[in-house]
Amino acid sequence: MVVISVMRALIARDLQLAARVGGSGALSLVFFLMIVALVPFALGPDLNLLSRIGPAILWLSAVLATLIGLDRLFQADEEDGSLDLMTGAPAPMEMVVLAKVIAHWLTTGLPLALASPLFGLLVALDGTAMGATALTLLVGTPALTFIGAVGAALTASIRRGGLILAVLVLPLMIPTLIFGVSATEAASGGTVPFTTPLLILSGLSLIAAVIGTFAAAAALRWSE
Description:
Elements: H1 2-21, H2 25-43, H3 47-66, H4 72-80, H5 82-87, H6 93-107, H7 109-120, H8 127-154, H9 162-187, H10 195-223
């Protein structure tokens, strides 16, 4: 019960901080919108081309937008000493990491998934593709966040470590990107059933949640 109470308190704390200072969620949404809005200008007015590669555009935009604010996931707590207090809390470090990652996903990944149908209008997606994209982002963005958490933990003690973080985690996000786009394309009449890549995407999120939580906790302990 103590562990659950600590997790709830940490999640509520991070959500309150995100709401109070604006957080990275709004920045991620704005960055997401900027990429989705600019790509059609680069590709031209071919709506068929836009609708065909629209899911890939949305997923790539989501991957890049997820990086916004990840470098501050643990760094802010490292700088003000909060991380030391969390280390001495009754809950293990893995639970602290899990709580902070969940709070970060609620303010970044979840809004991206919910906003994707609206942004899908900019790339000429039909209703089926919009719904599939939203579902795949809802399932796949936790994997992106947990993978990013490992990089955030490794760079927590490095000032301005955002570029290093991106170099570390972007290659690891490629499988999630591939299966996210594949699932969306399958829903729009692909050669494989929609559930196949969706289940793989779900598996990637579960694996990332387990490995990412323990790896990030180990990295934070190592940096002390």
